[in-house]
Amino acid sequence: MEIIKLDESSKQNLLADLLKRDPNNYGEYMGKVQKIVDDVKDRGDAALFGYTKEFDKADINPDNIRVTEAEIAEAMAQVDPELIAVMKKSLKNIRAFHELQKRKSWFESRPDGTILGQKITPLESVGVYVPGGKAAYPSSVLMNIIPAEVAGVERIVMVTPPGKDGKVNPVTLTAAHLAGATEVYKVGGAQAIAALAFGTESVPKVNKIVGPGNIYVALAKKSVYGHVSIDSIAGPSEIMVVADESANPHFVAADLLSQAEHDELASAILVTTSMELAEQVSAEVDRFLPQLSRREILEKSLANYGRILVVDSMEEAVRTANEIAPEHLELLTKNPFEVMTKIRNAGAIFLGDYSSEPLGDYFAGPNHVLPTNGTAKFFSPLNVDDYIKKSSIIYYSKEALEAAHEDIIKFAESEYLTAHANSIRVRFED
Known about the structure:
Blueprint: E1 3-5, H1 8-19, H2 30-43, H3 45-56, H4 69-78, H5 81-99, E2 106-109, E3 114-122, E4 125-129, H6 138-151, E5 155-160, H7 170-179, E6 183-186, H8 189-198, E7 208-210, H9 215-224, E8 229-230, E9 238-243, H10 249-260, E10 267-272, H11 275-288, H12 295-305, E11 306-310, H13 314-324, E12 328-332, H14 336-340, E13 348-351, H15 357-362, E14 388-396, H16 398-414, H17 418-425
Parallel strand pairs: 1-11, 4-5, 4-7, 5-6, 7-8, 9-10, 9-12, 10-11, 12-13
Antiparallel strand pairs: 2-3, 3-14
Helix pairs in contact: 2-3, 2-8, 2-9, 4-7, 5-6, 5-7, 6-7, 8-9, 10-11, 16-17
């Protein structure tokens, strides 16, 4: 990996390179995506089935688009029972963590005759997008569905591309069943997002769409935002490790590679106060590469977006982390808890030698759907709040309103909204 002595110029160059990966920069795809979205909106199932045949080579129709109970049973019979047992353990941890995020409605009664409050209501329906293809990511299925189930969402609709045989990956389907999906449809891509947003004859509309996907899925979610809510426009995965001379270079190298293998746009960055550690980690990366199955992807990812940054102090390391706002941040320092208190911007923070990033991906419980491309400066991980909405509750007695009515009238008239003022005034006319 390239080792850079960090200064302001090299930091700005790095930030510019990382921002190039933002899905919002791929405008050349937007026209194609918008055409698909508009077509599904206008023609419903006919467009949906046509695109599924074109892109996925599968013959899907109203009779087979929805996964049946028999298909779920068939899928679960094909999955390694030991993997199912592991998924159940993971599911338990994820549910326990998200249960702690649940909010309750609240009300405050005051002596002057007013009652104010907030009513928490789960969304009625949510669509969960799950990528298809050869790879199956049951962990993402659990992470997207379980918070919705914990929040109390009634309809949790999963969509995923079918194989050429018209079937859903059995591991994906098993995870969806275990997590609590109420409906599963065999459709993917931008056309699936459009179906969830607008509804078709076979796929009912939902209130919100969550889940990762390729550039077409990301831009389709952007296109339908406003007709429905969405979680975020997810970019490529990224990891940053902040380390001092106490870190184990073998561990650091392994952790950087754990994210770089996702795809060629993934980012893996080490920020360290030790040139000796930087050189050791670079050597360890070279030793690991021949052993790993996705070596070609790893090499391209590291060449494009992998860096080892050497800084003069831990304060500078923390500043760099906060400027980049990484999706995953590992703190491998003498006192990671102290460093953690200075971190303002990160999707998930992993502390110490035995809290490596894949622990969060699969098992610990906190959600692994995290803000990318610097959006951790203002976005949070996927959580139960993403599946609820809040209503304000206001009650005033006659006496309470009378005490405030002249102030309200004054305020309304200052904005020249005389009907607003009149709505209050009429209640206290002789």
